[in-house]
Amino acid sequence: MESLISHLGAMQFAQIIVKCWNECFILFMLYSMLVGRQDDKRYQVINSRAVLLTKELTLFYISVLIYNLSDIFVLIFGGRNSSTAYYIVRIGTFTYYASCAGITQFILKIIRKYIADKHGMKGLRRMIIAVQAVQYLLYAMLISNRYTGIFYQITEDNRYERSRGFPIWQLTTIITYIFIICVTVLEWKRIYSFLAKAVITAAGFHTVAMIVSLNMTYNLNSTMASFAALILFMLHEQNKKDSFIRSIHELEKTQTELERSNYLLEQSKNQLLIAQIQPHFINNSLMTLCARSREYPDVYEGLKYFSMYLRSHFDILSEESPITFEQEMDNIEAYLTLERMNYKDKLQVDYNIMCDDFTVPALSVQPLVENAVRHGISRENGGTVGISSFRKDGYIVIEVKDDGTGDRPDIEKNKERRGVGLENIIKRLDLVCGGRLELMKVPDGTVARITIKEESGDEKIDNAVG
User: Fold this and answer.
1) Which of 167, 212, 361, 412 is most buried (CB neighbours < 10 A)?
2) Higher pLDDT, 332 or 462
3) Closest CA to 359 of 321, 320, 388
4) Dihedral over Cα of 45, 46, 47, 52: its sign
5) Are strands 436-442 and 445-453 parallel, antiparallel or unpaired?
6) Which positions are tagged coiled coil (predicted)?
7) Domain boundary at 214, 234, 253, which?
8) Hey, how many other C-beta atoms are within 10 angstroms of the C-beta on 263?
């Protein structure tokens, strides 16, 4: 170690240590990107689009890794006279320049693909191709450097040294990066934000490094390339996170649209069913029976309310939009009148309606009342069903309560009370008005509670217009 430090000098040794640490970080980022590419394949199950620039940045990290590694080998073996050092310094120097040019071409291809080609900008595409042609010319000059020594030369003591033509390489590359930055800034609003930030970062750091290196013997290029790689890695990870969140939101939106389509399909089936069973014929027939049974009051009353119950169901099922709570209550009262005829005086109903100026999905409260009567009221002992509505903390609350005198299993285990009907109500409440349904066992019975967020004045106007 001491012989290496004495050969290189303290400053150059420190440079090598820093560059080695940079290589470790780049290896870690490269590994993360390779693993990330596998994650992208799983990610595409949620969203068919892969995360932008994953493949391109992986290639960029490989280029930077080679770039820095070449610089390290040239620094370590420079000044040594062995045959191994002879070839390492020459191959390392050429690879250093070639990888530098490769990074420049790489960024040019990105702006050509994602800006010029994607947006059909033929003029810009021709300009980028012209700049790429200049870079290919530099490649040709680099290949001939062994014979011309135009950019650099290796001294007799096996050390790298810049030649008189080095500013041509440096200035051409600087101008190319400035061109890339200008194109990205001018087209900023048209391109994806992450893409713009990535290009500006890669090109900006290299530009600063090359401008500084024009007047310095110390080479900042590889160090700045490492900083650019680190920032690009953080930008990419943030973009990956944002892309995943956007995909989840898109999936939720698609799911909502699908539920809405299913709801509309259900409405269409209801309308078709109503058309098939001819509700007017049924209503007219029931009214005829009512007229002929006036001499039998109990039969007359039963037929009259059953006719009202059916008619309200037919009318409600024909509606595509939510109905008023008052309409829902009319249907509930018709149903409860029929049930009181069965239970006689054993069924009591307690109404506490504090508000009714809102809408609900059709048949969203009546099934809860039916459940309360069917499962909460004993035919032997009877019971009470309570129906209430009120406002609380910006919400409209509807409660259906029974006193629990009926014999039935615990609500959490009762399949009938948590069956398909209730699931249907839950879905329709969420879809139509953003409401939710809760079933609760209380000491004196069972409560079914519907909670609906109350609309503001602006929301009501928007919904009315829509």
Assistant:
1) 361
2) 332
3) 321
4) negative
5) antiparallel
6) none
7) 253
8) 16
